[in-house]
Structure of Two-component system response regulator YesN:
Amino acid sequence: MFKLLIADDEQLEREALRFIISKSIDSINHFEEAVNGREAIDKARTTKPDIIILDINMPGINGIEAARKIRESDETACIIFLTAFHQFDYAHEAIKVGVEDYIVKPSSEKRIVEVMEKVTSKLMRKIGEKQKREIIESRLDRVTDYLGSEFIYNLATRTLEEEKFENYLTLLDMDFRKGRGMIMKLNYKSYPILTSQEYQKEILKKRCIRLLKAQLRQHDLFCSCNADLNSVLILVYCDRYNGIMESDEILSNRLQSITDNIRDDLNIDIMLGFGSIFESANRAQISFSEAKKSLSEISDKEDLSSSGGSFPIELEMDLEQAVLAVDKGKLDELFVKLEDMVQSSPASFEDKKNSILDLTVILRHSAALQFPEGECRIDTVELGDSLNVLELLKAFKDVLNELISKVAILYASENIPVIKKACQYIEENYYREISLEDTAAYCNLSTFYFSKIFKEHKKKNFITFLTEIRINEAKRLLNQTDLTMKEISGRIGYRDPNYFTRVFKRVEKCSPRHFRNKKMLKQQ
């Protein structure tokens, strides 16, 4: 286990030490010898011993000088001085500059063994501590990877509170200024070697991510990824000091170049979709939703085989919306489409099964976001135990029916999280130029389904709800401030003061100016 260098100009001393140590200390299994200080220095550099025994009184470079030279290139080797009794004080001083121990000549076998056991025990403790550190560091790395994946997944699929967003950034040591949501999809079919095993796909995925990170880093951009599903979720961001988020056009060209480079280097085709720039957590989900739509324009014509075992993004999105809108007819129609795709695909059964399991995770998570506790439990045992395509499709159909049933029961209640989330978004952003499309994307719903659900539960449409909030705020400002009509109009989200006046008059049956004057007359 350990390597020992013995440096002494007397051959008899070297042989005696080697004999005693080899028979008494099992952990030392490799021996080197040197006859003077110069040779000791050279052998220490070339053989890297764990323990060095140096005689102080050697011709030429003595033991103390040799120890100093060795220490210049090796701070970890344990050095033991071998010294005559009259040199003890001299050797004792040397101990203070980094020598482990000393053996006084002539020495008993007991003393030699005692010193060597002490030194080897120390080395064993160091190895144990090093292994513990490596285990802890390895665990920390795994926790960091897990936390990073969790962060990106939550950022892409739900609205994170700003405080939680900042906590993630701190824990992951991410210097975030602005970012974009991005999604990467690998076409495993394009790879020249058959990739039927999951571990092969994971290796390819990691290589693509590594190359993507390196390419983005050349332009002062960083990225953090979630690679748990077939499609890789990616947060591309710049820091607070050097980075600049490029325009859509420049980034599109940049990504095309990266795609080409990955194809050239790794022999695999990838597709990249990206969303709009965001600075705060509440816009991240919209950016990832846009990335998903962008990617769907590229990949929705692919079959299950050509996409490397994953379904087209457009189909995933349509299934999500059908479940969330409790549209049983649409869901059945989409299932027939998926069924045809699975049955006609040349992909292996394992690929098909993994694709449906991944899709189940996506759909279950989308449904879970609608529930107050953020969890939607469904039975997936039969799905995991299926042994052929027919069993797989039947089990997945049961999963879809269970999901839509749970969402329908939830929507029958008076208050559902998605409506509460939408109302909160409107109340916090009414002064901006927000639209039905913005709010629907924020809630991870299509415009059509969001509009339908919102009207069912609020008994009014989106525009009416937004207008009521804006007019109520306008009335407060008219009563409590001296702001001009133009200033009030800008503060509640209307750029055109004339349009604001028309809307106010339609709702309150009088102009804003008349409303203010009436209030002033009452106060007088």
Observations:
- The longest strand covers residues 178-187.
- The longest helix spans residues 109-157.
- The domain at 2-128 is CATH 3.40.50.2300 (Rossmann fold).
- The beta strands are 2-7, 28-34, 51-55, 78-84, 101-105, 178-187, 222-226, 232-238, 269-278.
